[in-house]
Design a protein that fits this description.
Helices cover 41% and strands 16% of the residues. It is an alpha/beta fold and 240 residues long. It has one domain: Flavodoxin domain (Rossmann fold), CATH 3.40.50.360. β6, α5 and β7 form a beta-alpha-beta unit. α1 packs across α7. It is globular, with a radius of gyration of 19 Å.
Length: 240
């Protein structure tokens, strides 16, 4: 099993998103999967210019020459795409969105009715057949992930792929201030990765357990107050 994992966090290796993704990848590798992780923040990826050259003049090939050229081969050769992104303004990061937009070069300009009875484009080349989401949010409520999950599932449908699961852990501000709270959940994520590698999916009950808020909203606000105090100090404010 070949897996490409895109870390769309602007914080790269320093963020909570990478902590989650890294442990998932460790589990996948323990299960025998071949993984390749890409830190999108280190790549130059321009937004789609909607020129439609990839559909009309050079089928399957994007007209923009940048670091997407190094990502396309992994997308074409992988069985699973892991989209790892924090929630930014209720959705995926700009870095991740740019990648997904640039993947329209896999589409034909023609229209067909797909297996879900919706009008869609057929494909010049195929994206990974399965999508998996990894995310965190600065807010403590699980509802923060709803728009992102809806978009991720729609992206999978657009590319003829199947969404097989989501790991979405809220409260990243508290988890940055008190990282020890995250450790037990990371062990569970690693186990989920091993299961995904060996079975092609993760037990829904395990995902449900992983995605439970780690702290209550009251505890979150208590811990986050330390961040607020630091932020006020960094701005030169002596008090509220």
């Amino acid at each position: 099993m070949n897996i490409i994992a895109l870390n769309g966090s602007a914080r790269g290796l320093r963020g909570v998103t990478w902590k989650l993704l890294n442990r998932l990848l460790k589990g996948l590798e323990e299960g025998g999967a071949q993984t390749h992780a890409i830190q999108l923040k280190d790549h130059v990826i321009s937004p789609c210019s909607a020129c439609l050259t990839c559909m009309h003049k050079t089928p399957g090939l994007c007209a923009i020459n940048d670091d997407m050229d190094t990502i396309y081969p992994y997308l074409k050769d992988s069985d699973i795409l892991i989209m790892a992104t924090p929630v930014y303004v209720d959705n995926m990061s700009a870095q991740m969105k740019a990648v997904m937009d640039r993947c329209i070069c896999c589409l034909e300009p023609f229209l067909r009715i797909d297996t879900a009875d919706r009008v869609r484009h057929p494909f010049i080349w195929n994206m990974p057949g399965k999508f998996f989401l990894v995310s965190t949010s600065g807010f403590p409520e699980t509802e923060s992930f709803a728009p992102l999950i809806q978009t991720y599932r729609a992206q999978a449908a657009n590319f003829g792929s199947y969404p097989i699961g989501e790991i979405c852990i809220p409260g990243s501000i508290a988890l940055q201030m008190a990282p020890h709270l995250l450790e037990p959940r990371l062990d569970m994520i690693q186990h989920a990765g091993k299961m995904l590698s060996k079975q092609g999916g993760v037990d829904p009950s395990l995902l449900e357990e992983i995605n439970k808020p780690i702290v209550t909203r009251e505890k979150y606000l208590e811990i986050a107050a330390q961040y607020e105090a630091w932020a006020r100090k960094s701005r030169g404010e002596t008090g509220r």
